[in-house]
Amino acid sequence: MRILITNDDGINAPGLKVLEAIAQDLAGPDGEVWTVAPAFEQSGVAHCISYTHPTLIAEMGPRRFAAEGSPADCVLAGLHDVMVDTPPDIVLSGVNRGNNSAENALYSGTLGGAIEGALQGLPAFALSQYLGPRNFPSENPFEAAAEHGAEVIRRILQNAPDQGEDYRLFYNINFPPVPAPEVAGIRVATQGFRRDTCFSVEAHSSPSGKRFLWVKGGNQQVRTAPGTDARANLDGYISVTPMRADLTAHDALDALKAIE
C-alpha cells in the first residue's frame, strides 16, 4: 500500500510522527509512506487552498516534503506533483493535537486535508487526539491514537460502504482523552454540537498601543448529545464519523419547495 500523509500542525509536529508510525503499520514492509506537510502550523484553516499565490515546496528527506501552504495544498502537491507518477492508495491527515469533534470539524485544517483527498477520489481519514486531564499531562498524550490508529483504519477499510462517484466519503476519527489501555472501544457517531460554547475573540493591546484580537476556543470538556462524537470521546470511546463535502441541507429541501 502507498500512503500520503499530511497534517495541519506542521511538519515538525509530534502528532505527525505518530501518524507516520500508523501509516507504516498500514503500508507494511513492502509499502511506502510519503509525507507532504505544511512548513508552518496551519491550524484552523479548514479546506483553504492557496488559489491566488504559488506554494513553495522543499524536499526534506526521502519521501518527505514541506510545503508553505495549507493541508489541502499539501494533498494537491502530493497527488499532482510529488507522487504524480506513483499515486497513493489512501490519504491520512493528522494526528491533530486536540479534538476535531463537533463544531471543531468545520474549522479543522486536519479535516481539510482529508476533504481534499476525498474530492480527488481517494479513501481519506482525518485523525485527531482529544486532550483532557487524563492524558494531557502525560509524557505521551498521543498514546491512544498511536496504539489504536492503524486498527481503526483497517476496520473502516474492511467495512467501508460503496462511496459512489460524486462526493466521496471521508472519515473523521477522534481518539478519546484517556491513556491507551483505558480506551473503551469504537463508536460510529454523528457530528455533535457543543451547546453554550463556541469560538470567540479576546482583545489585547501591544506595547505600542495597537489593539489585537486573539481567537479563543470554548470548553472542550462539554458532552454533546448521545450518539454523537464528543459524547463518545468523553466517555472513553474512539469516534468514527463518516462525512461528505456535500453541504446541502437535504432535510430543508421539501420545505423550501414553496418558493419555486
TrEMBL record:
Q: Which residues form the Survival protein SurE-like phosphatase/nucleotidase domain?
A: 3-195
Where is this chain's protein located in or outside the cell?
Cytoplasm
Q: Which SUPFAM superfamilies match?
A: SurE-like (SSF64167)
> Is Metal-binding one of the keywords?
yes
Q: What does the record's cofactor remark say about binding?
A: Binds 1 divalent metal cation per subunit.
Residues that coordinate or bind a divalent metal cation:
8-9, 43, 96
The cross-references to InterPro entries, in alphabetical order and at most eight, read: SurE, SurE-like_Pase/nucleotidase, SurE-like_sf
Q: What does this protein do?
A: Nucleotidase that shows phosphatase activity on nucleoside 5'-monophosphates.
Fetch the HAMAP family from UniProt: SurE (MF_00060)
- Name of the molecule in the record: 5'-nucleotidase SurE
Q: Which organism is it from?
A: Arenibacterium halophilum
The organism that produces this protein has a lineage beginning with:
Bacteria, Pseudomonadati, Pseudomonadota, Alphaproteobacteria, Rhodobacterales
